[in-house]
Amino acid sequence: MAKITASVYTSHVPAIGAAMDLGKTREDYWKPVFAGYDFSKQWLKENKPDVIFLVYNDHATAFSLDMIPTFAIGTAAEFTPADEGFGPRPVPKVIGHPDLASHIAHSVIQQDFDLTIVNRMDVDHGLTVPLSLMCGEQDPVTGAWPCPVIPFAVNVVQYPVPSGQRCFNLGKAIRRAIESFDADLDVQIWGTGGMSHQLQGARAGLINRAWDNAWLDTMIADPAAAAAVPHIDYVREAGSEGIELVMWLIARGAMSDVPYDAKDAIELVAARAHPIRSRHRFYHVPASNTAVGHLILENT
């Protein structure tokens, strides 16, 4: 059966993609950011999955105010990098995994989560920047990402947005779906976005180091408590775009130390028998006007 072996968490700042595409990664401003992913690129080479389930948010590229799905899963065979106003990023197209994506959609919907099934869409920097950070620069024609990717878009742009608790519970449902897929696949789940940042208004440029790192501590050690953080706390403490962190909770909820049902004693025992291992943690400010957070957790 398929299994989730690890989760990866990272910011997806568009300026990071631009720095890579324009050859600026060795400039003094950007070197500390990219140094934080040196371990991660080697780790991914040594732990290459069969499929990446990548949670991100679309930035008015595939979706607009005409249609705003809360949760959307890409079931296509491939996804083209989007033109976000300056031409598509010079990166390879993303190869999907229609069989697993369709299975996850069926299973999660049967677990009472409503998903929008998307058979064709372009993917923007929210998805391609994490791939670039973890995989390194790739030639757009001859290069390729290391494995198929299932895009999973979450609306954290237009209100109302899903709660952290809803996202955390969805992660559990996704794990159940993946573990019921009848193929021997190694799957990683990636949660992207954040950390603290605000792009407009009187608090534009807000970055809250203390809150970011305290939230990371809680998400690692007590994910149920992180899931219970109310929406207003993200806005107040991490800025209007800090709400992107709820997407990390989808990946965290899918890890093996999180029981499907906190009332189920058997699940609780099983979860304690399979603790997670933190392999890498990185935090840096600023990258553009955003705090960059990054984490790798492994199931044991």
The chain-level mean pLDDT equals 95
Strand content: 15-25%
What are the segments in which pLDDT stays under 50 over at least 5 consecutive residues? none
H and E order: EHHHEEEEHEHEHEHHHHHEE
Overall geometry: globular
Radius of gyration: 18 Å
CATH class: Alpha Beta
Strands of the widest sheet, in order across it, are: 6-3-7-2-8-1-10-9
The CATH topology? Protocatechuate 4,5-dioxygenase, Chain B
Helix content: 25-40%
Number of strands: 10
Largest sheet: 8 strands, mixed
Instruction: Give me the number of helical elements.
Output: 11
Number of domains: 1
CATH architecture annotation name: 3-Layer(aba) Sandwich
Let me know the CATH homologous superfamily.
LigB-like
* Distance between the ends: 17 Å
Look at the helices and sheets and give the structural class: alpha/beta
Oligomer: single chain
Task: Provide a quick synopsis of the model.
This protein is α/β, with parallel strands linked by helices. It has helices at 14-21, 31-35, 38-46, 98-110, 125-135, 164-179, 209-221, 223-227, 231-238, 246-253, 265-273; strands at residues 3-10, 51-56, 71-74, 78-79, 94-95, 116-118, 149-154, 186-192, 276-287, 290-299. The chain has 11 helices and 10 strands.
Written account of the structure:
- This protein has 300 residues and is α/β, with parallel strands linked by helices.
- The protein has one domain (3-299): Protocatechuate 4,5-dioxygenase, Chain B.
- Helices cover 35% and strands 20% of the residues.
- The protein has 11 helices and 10 strands.
- Strand 9 (276-287) and strand 10 form a beta hairpin.
- Helix 1 (14-21) packs across helix 5, helix 4 (98-110) packs across helix 6 (164-179) and helix 6 packs parallel to helix 10.
- The radius of gyration is 18 Å and the shape is globular.
- The chain starts with a strand and ends with a strand.
- The mean pLDDT is 95.
